[in-house]
Design brief:
Shape: globular
Number of helices: 7
Strand order of the largest sheet: 3-2-1-4-5
Number of domains: 1
Number of strands: 5
CATH architecture: 3-Layer(aba) Sandwich
Strand content: 5-15%
Radius of gyration: 15 Å
CATH class: Alpha Beta
Length: 143
């Protein structure tokens, strides 16, 4: 069975508009048992929820995944590997130093997808293709 991991930006679109992108809707309709939820995504979404209603909308997204045990959380190994990858980014691209904090979660998400054998879905082409150049993982960028 194929496995799928969806980035925060796509869930934000869903929360804000109430409309899922056709590709994400198709995944949920056809391959729901293969979709996993990242604890990194949960953290990012909850950090952006500034009201009780917003927090409730976020929790509606990840609660089903918690119930069935399909939440992916970065391991200690992922954190160590992320440190090495981020150091490589800075070595190769010192101009990205100010962007480094934003890359931490993206790196953890990419490594989680890789270890799960999942395809990562995002709109964030720049950050994830940069990381993909350092460590291979399955990626679908949605326009």
């Amino acid at each position: 069975m194929a496995k799928h991991l969806i980035d925060t930006d796509l869930y934000i679109d869903l929360i804000q508009s109430g409309i899922t992108l056709p590709l994400i809707r198709e995944l949920y309709d056809k391959d729901a048992p293969g979709i996993y939820f990242s604890s990194v995504v949960a953290q990012e979404l909850l950090a952006g929820a500034r009201s009780l209603a917003g927090r409730n909308r976020v929790e509606i997204l990840f609660r089903p995944f918690e119930r069935v045990g399909r939440v992916v959380t970065p391991s200690h190994g992922h954190w160590k590997e992320a440190g090495g990858l981020l150091a490589k980014v800075l070595q190769d691209r010192p101009d990205l130093k100010s962007k480094l904090p934003a890359l931490v979660n993206d790196c953890l998400l990419a490594l989680s997808a890789r270890s799960l054998g999942a395809t990562l879905y995002t709109r964030n082409r720049g950050d994830f293709t940069l990381l993909q150049g350092l460590r291979s993982f399955s990626l679908v960028v949605i326009n």
